Amino acid sequence: MTTTNTGQQIPPGRPSRPAGKVDFTFMYAAHDAFNRDLLRLAAAVEAGRTADPAVRTGWEAFKNQLHAHHTAEDSWLWPALRGKATRPGEVSVLDAMEAEHARIDPLLSGVDASLTATGLAGLTENASALASALAAHMEHEEDHALPLVEAHLGPEGWAAFGKAAGKSAGLRGAAELFPWMLDDAPADTSKRLLSMLPPPARLLYRALWRPGYTRTPRWGTATN
Prior knowledge:
Mean pLDDT: 90
Helix content: over 70%
Largest sheet: 2 strands, antiparallel
CATH architecture of the domain at 23-169: Up-down Bundle
CATH topology of the domain at 23-169: Four Helix Bundle (Hemerythrin (Met), subunit A)
């Protein structure tokens, strides 16, 4: 894994970008976790394991985290940018971010419906459509929306977004988010993200959050 001179982690497979003012490690780690779960969903569909309770539990966690992630962006990130990114090209990016979020919601519902239906009719197609749409959205966000965050909000605005999202989620939200996001994450990413937590929360992560997460089977795969 590459590290920029700001300490930002660039996961394998993601194009390296020039070091900037804002550390987007958290956003990249969340996107990697979504991609990880989409791969696990695809593997479960291919193996015919979608009735497995562990798969259903993994899917529910993925849905909850994606909903929380997009709600936070729609509530605090895009509105903050709209006050500053006013050029037509910039506004079109923000419009696209919100439209892509809206398109992803029915795709989630489609997978849900296929998972609960008798048989696997449509599940492969619905899971593939969701994976394609979400991957394209995250790439679009990283390539075009995050540079707007850096240009117009900077480190202070990014920190304010994180603080607002964290306050809304509370400790209960963090207890679900961090073990999920760091499941199978590279050690250097885990170390950096945990360093962003205050010491009491890091203690809770090691003593309670992570052990509680690992006790519940997800996707039928071992968690680290």
